[in-house]
Amino acid sequence: MRKFGTFLALTLVLITLISGCAKGAIEEQGSATIKGNFIDGESGGDAETLNWILAADASSFGYAGHTVDSLATYDNQFNIQFRCLAKDIEVSPDGLVYTITIRDDLKWSDGSQVTAEDYIYTMKNLMFSDWLNYPYKSLWQEEVDGKTVFVVPQVINATTFTVTRQTVDPEFIYTIYDLTPYPKYIATQYEGNAEAFTQAPEFNNLTYTGNLGPYKFKEWIRNDRFVVERNPDYYLGKENGAPYFEQYITKLFSSSATRQAALEAGDITSTGIDPSDVNRFRSMPNVKVYTNPTRGYWLLAYNQRANGWEGLKNKTVRQALSTAISKQTISQAILLGFAEPAYSFIPATSPWYTDEGIVKYGVGPLFDKLKAAELLYQAGYGKKESDGTIKVTNKDGTQLHLVLATSTGSKVAEDTAFSVRKDLLQLGIETEIKLVPWATLIRQYMMNTVPGSKQEPTDNNGPNAVSQEPWDLMLLGFNTDLLAPSGSRVFFTTNGGLNFAGYSNPEVDGLFNRARSKEALDKTARKQIYAELSRLLSEEQPVDFLVFNRANVGFQKNVEGIEPGINMGYNYYMWYFGPAE
Amino acid sequence: MGKSWLRDYVIKRLIYSIIIAWGILTITFILVRIGPSSPADKYLANIAARGADPVQATAAIEARYGLDKPIYVQYFNYMGNLFRGNWGWSFSTSMPVIELIKTHWIYSFQLILLSSLFAAILGMLIGIYSAVRQYSRMDYTFTFLSFIGISIPNFWLGIMLILFFSVNLGLFKTYYDTTLPLFSLDNLKALILPVITLGTGMLAGYVRYTRSAMLDNLKKPFVTTARSKGLPERTVIGKHVFRNALLPLVTIIMFDLGSIVFGGAYLTEIVFGIPGLGQISFNAIFANDYPVVVAVTLIGTFIVLLVNLATDISYTYLDPRIRYG
Hints:
heterodimer, A: alpha+beta, 25 strands, 27% helix
């Protein structure tokens, strides 16, 4: 048996030797501007495809975006930054014709020039086609005389093209800024054959991207890493030599714990940091943490359909509930200060935000449980106890019991649900929390049909539709497009495609329509419209807008060139490794 | 004739395996396709954030996944392609399914193989030691450690190993690096923590099973006979007792091999970021990517069926009295 002891000892020695021998070569950190591999740790899931026209997910656009620039982007102050654009888009005085001029030094991989014809072909023959399933067609469509039609693109010359609408939409310009071309000379080979196009090696391996992006595709190991390498021909790098990283690697992790451990150990360059770990990372000598506002917010939806508590159709009741739910608890105790209370769908970071007239439920004087109880009592939902206190009840005096649904997998959502339950319990309202998988939440709680009909379930099948499972409150994370907030009409207008809660207010519908009208071409007028919309929704409380999130991102300290802000990555091709500290 | 009965038995079992695999394939296909969720569900937030029409976008995504066709059409198309050797296109990863599996199987295979070897060899050695030195201090220590090993959840152990050995001591990378050459010391090093994570539970189990099986056999008369014949203790333990204890152990090890292919390896892959078949199939299930789900299930089914067959055949060598009709 002594030999067994020797075997164990040898095994341990072998493990130690292997550990020692295999220490990887440490990357040399000189003072050269082009050096090193930037490794970005992510845990949001892998991309679906690099053939971006077929993609619906953000990761796919993110991956492809390293190799092909859109027409323009924005800095942290929302100033436009031209990418493939030679100059800003010209909009005709009537707001219907957009003239786009691209740079003349954009090249495909075969050396041929990227022309206006490529953009027009991408729109007309690919995005607008029936044979290819482009998920974002609706962004390029408009309603004309009750019919849905596409906008009309047209080539003017090699570097200029127009897009013409029949109706005015001042925010359509932001859709154009996002436009990215496909090479006509390759795409024509697959035209009309969706299967062949889907599987085309040129598009799945991004071999056509020429000098259009700061990086070129190198490798994609599914569920592991996406690797792009420096593009020395990048059109924006001609004068300054950018980009400066040899490779930009997106490394996928399954959890924030392993992702953050990798940053702490120096195995990756950057990753998101959970609120609870921010102070720990801030104290590390090798890591710098940036805190940025985001466009994401948490809300508590009130079910105003027939299978929700009838009180929720009453504005006073919704206001009362929002008065009883503390936003400070959520922003300070749950998100540890990395969130701002929200009062409407437009955050303070948006250029369209106005504070004037906003009703701030859930904070300051409008966080008041006594007042909330009084409002509910006045609305008929409560009874006065012998000591004068109000117990909130159903109209018939029975115990009020609400169902709060949210999805599993988010600690913030779970903690917030329990915080809401605690707040409502102090009014005498019992809340049952239902934590269900995201797919179940969508299919059984959000999607709805008119009972007895043969409708296909959608998120809004009209005012008489109800979801399969009854619910009263639903905790969700939403996003607002900060430059084009009118996209949120899908949630808040009567016929909005994602108005699963059944909220309806003709005044709100009208304001969203005005935000996309000729009147709104004047930015001052548009700001007035959004101010009125924010004020109205903050007062109406179709949902309880809870908090706008802030994001924390940790970087190894030697990464330089970063400009912290809401669009922090806008100039990432200019980032570089400084001297190692 | 030799072992012609064995050849007949193997052929019969292989035919049964094909029928069972076809049944499981069909059930899996139907289960994936009749599920209420849509591949578009997980993109709803992104679709909404871009201000697009969710109904139109959902229809486009479902059409791309082939969900716009009746289920029987999808089934016959899929089966027809499968018989022609075409495993289909993975929608959620945008590559041919066969390429996806060819790229990723090795990550799972090396992890499972090394973990099984680590657990089986070390587990049996410790189990033999514990049985021979029953009720010694070392036996109690191994018994105590075995219970801890069985009780520790894989994912927790993995994270603890990363925090201690990678973050605090800096001995290993915090994640598995797929750029390392397969047959290299670096790759072996990268697999140490994942192998310990996946193998610990199995190791602890094998220690207990081996100890128990050895103790059962140590009490049998043939051991007394062997000792009375003056055979060295090493021969008695190694050749006589252990060989007889091996039969139930082989069953357990093979069973474990089947179960970690489907379950245990996945959690370890998740913790260490190993892009093996476990991760691929898990993501495919949530993405409704039925060509991948069905293919991985089919491979797993064949592995389990073949492992069972190999187990049965191994019995005939370990115990020549065993015959199959």
